Automatic annotation (TrEMBL):
InterPro entries xrefs: Bact_Chemotaxis_MeTrfase, CheR_C, CheR_MeTrfase, CheR_N, SAM-dependent_MTases_sf
Domain CheR-type methyltransferase: 4-256
This protein's UniProt keywords: Methyltransferase, Transferase
GO biological process: methylation
Keyword set includes NAD: no
Alphabetical list of Pfam families matching this protein: CheR (PF01739), CheR_N (PF03705)
The name this protein goes by in its record: Protein-glutamate O-methyltransferase CheR
Recorded GO MF terms: S-adenosylmethionine-dependent methyltransferase activity
Xref: SUPFAM superfamilies: Chemotaxis receptor methyltransferase CheR, N-terminal domain, S-adenosyl-L-methionine-dependent methyltransferases
Length: 279
């Protein structure tokens, strides 16, 4: 029995390897080096969600049905986010970028891959405190419709508020963080006013084109999931979408150093990955 189970496990692992190889070759998403146990769990979640029975059936559907592929990728991409995540970046943004934005009659900011919205609400709070929110429009996009719906609700677990408050203080917050939300029994609902200048929309960085010209683009911890070809494609999209002297903010493990656009940016803050497009 153990030998049979072993062969079935080997077969399943082979199927998963073929699925990941197919997704990589067909779409450019590279999950081949991800931790196997976590991948297996997420893949089976998608198999059940598609009402299929085997990994091979999922492979066939994902390779022929782009919407299925997007659902699979959404399951495989880990949505790790929190309010004022990497508070040093927000502190640097206040100090270095906000003064640049003050000279603009209106400000357009794009949060690409916004997940459940914590980053965009953090920016809304920062802009309110800096007196810029009323002339700003924040575009929050993600490939996953489910996380976008959660983002629009602006409701987050109450148990996270302690950590979020600490981040807010380290990010240079100017008020009491608790003023921005109403606490329930187990959830915190953020002020409706924080949503007034936010536009939520589905957007796929891989397949969709630029939809506006932005003064600031946040694309943090998104590119790490893409292979080099797709990373280059997204960098082209970002460059095309930035205004003449626009600001790009990447995640702490991402860089423009090895892209063809590297010479088109000046490094405003190397530690916090804040770059200015050279006009």
């Amino acid at each position: 029995m153990d030998a049979v189970d072993g062969k079935m496990t080997d077969l399943e692992q082979l199927e998963i390897e073929l699925l990941l190889e197919g997704v990589y070759r067909r779409y450019g998403y590279d999950f081949r080096q991800y931790a196997y146990a976590s991948l297996r769990r997420r893949i089976w979640h998608r198999i059940h969600g598609e009402r299929l029975k085997t990994v091979s059936e999922l492979q066939s559907k994902a390779l022929h049905d782009r919407s299925c592929m997007e659902r699979l990728v959404s399951d495989l991409v880990i949505h790790v986010t929190e309010m004022f995540r990497d508070p040093g970046m927000f502190a640097a943004f206040r100090k270095q970028v906000v003064p640049m934005l003050r000279s603009l009659p209106s400000v357009r900011i794009w949060h690409a891959g916004c997940s459940t919205g914590e980053e965009v609400y953090s920016m809304a709070i920062l802009l309110q405190e800096e007196g810029l929110y009323e002339r700003a429009t924040l575009y929050a996009t993600d490939v996953n419709e489910n996380v976008l719906q959660r983002a629009e609700q602006a409701v987050f677990p109450l148990k996270k508020m302690k950590a979020y408050t600490k981040n807010y203080i380290l990010a240079g917050g100017k008020d009491e963080f608790s003023k921005y939300y109403t606490a329930g029994s187990d959830a915190a609902a953020f002020q409706p006013s924080l949503k007034e200048r936010i536009v939520f929309a589905q957007h796929n960085l891989v397949t969709d084109r630029s939809f506006n010209e932005f003064h600031v683009i946040f694309c943090r911890n998104v590119l790490i999931y893409f292979d080099p070809v797709l990373q280059a494609h997204v960098h082209d999209l970002i460059y095309e979408s930035l205004s003449g002297s626009g600001i790009l903010v990447l995640g702490d493990k991402e860089t423009i150093t090895f892209t063809k656009h590297a010479s088109s940016y000046e490094v405003l803050n190397p530690h916090e990955k804040i770059y200015g497009k050279i006009n």
